[in-house]
Design goal:
By secondary structure, the protein is mainly alpha-helical. The protein has 2 domains: 1-57, Homeodomain-like (Arc Repressor Mutant, subunit A, Orthogonal Bundle); 77-221, Tetracycline Repressor, domain 2 (Orthogonal Bundle), CATH 1.10.357.10. It contains 13 helices and 2 strands; from the N terminus they run αααααααααββαααα. A two-stranded antiparallel ribbon has the order 1-2. Strand 1 and strand 2 form a beta hairpin. Helix 2 (17-31) crosses helix 3, helix 7 (105-111) runs antiparallel to helix 9 (137-161) and helix 8 packs across helix 9 (137-161). It is flat, with a radius of gyration of 22 Å.
C-alpha cells in the first residue's frame, strides 16, 4: 500500500488549535498585542480567517489561551501542595519572572481586570503555600494578594526596563549610566538615593526579586 505524499503533507500541516496558539505567541512576541490580528495570523499560517475561527472564536479568547499556555509552561512543575512552601513560592515567582521577561505582553494580560482563570490559578497555587507556611487565616488573603501583585508588577517592570523602543538593551550600560546620574544628584535633595548608586550598578535582578518575596513572607510571619 502506497502513501500519497500530498495527503501526508496535508495531515502534517493540518491546522490545529495548538498551531494557532503557537503562531499567536510568535506574533505577540514580535508585534505586540496590536499586531495580533486574524489577518496577520492567517497570513502566518497560510490559511483563511474562517479556518482559524473554527478553533478560536475571537482575539480575546486567543490572548487568554496564549497567556494560559505560557504560564502553565512556566509554573506547571511547581507542586501546589509541596511542604517546601517558601521554595515553591520562589519557583512559581521565578517561572513567572522569566516568562514575562521573555514575553512582556503576559504581564499586561494577567493584570487586566477582571482576573482571568489563569490569574486565579496562580493565586490558588501561591495561596496554598502561604497556608502551609502557617500564616494566620486573617492574613492569608492579604499575603497572597500582595505576593501576586508584587510578582506580576516587578516582573513586568523588569521586562520594561530591559527593553527600549529600539529593542533589547545592554543592561549593564544602562545601569552604569543611571548609577552615575544618581551619584551626581544634589546631596541636599537626594541624600538617600545618592548612597544607592553602587547597589544599583551591581545588583542582580533575580536575586533582588526573590529578596522582595522573602521580605513579604517575613512580614506575614510576624503578624
Amino acid at each position: 500500500m502506497t502513501t500519497n505524499p500530498r495527503t501526508t503533507e496535508r495531515r502534517e500541516g493540518a491546522l490545529t488549535r495548538d498551531r494557532i496558539v503557537e503562531a499567536a505567541i510568535g506574533l505577540l512576541d514580535t508585534e505586540g498585542e496590536a499586531g495580533l490580528t486574524f489577518r496577520a495570523l492567517a497570513s502566518r499560517l497560510g490559511t483563511g480567517h474562517g479556518a482559524i475561527q473554527w478553533h478560536v472564536a475571537n482575539k480575546g479568547e486567543l490572548l487568554r489561551v496564549a497567556t494560559a499556555t505560557l504560564v502553565e509552561r512556566a509554573v506547571g512543575d511547581a507542586d501546589p501542595d509541596s511542604e517546601a512552601a517558601a521554595d515553591t513560592i520562589h519557583s512559581i515567582a521565578l517561572g513567572l519572572f522569566d516568562a514575562i521577561d521573555d514575553h512582556p505582553w503576559i504581564g499586561a494580560q494577567l493584570a487586566r481586570p477582571p482576573w482571568q482563570s489563569t490569574m486565579l490559578e496562580i493565586f490558588e497555587r501561591i495561596g496554598r503555600q502561604v497556608r502551609l507556611l502557617g500564616v494566620d487565616e486573617p492574613a492569608q488573603f492579604t499575603t497572597t494578594s500582595t505576593l501576586l501583585m508584587y510578582i506580576i508588577g516587578a516582573a513586568g517592570q523588569n521586562a520594561t526596563n530591559s527593553r527600549l523602543p529600539g529593542g533589547v538593551v545592554d543592561r549593564q550600560n544602562v545601569l552604569d549610566e543611571l548609577a552615575d546620574d544618581w551619584a551626581g544628584l544634589d546631596a541636599s535633595a537626594y541624600d538617600f538615593t545618592r548612597t544607592m548608586a553602587e547597589p544599583l550598578r551591581t545588583h542582580d535582578d533575580r536575586a533582588e526579586f526573590l529578596a522582595g518575596i522573602d521580605i513579604i513572607l517575613a512580614g506575614a510571619a510576624t503578624r
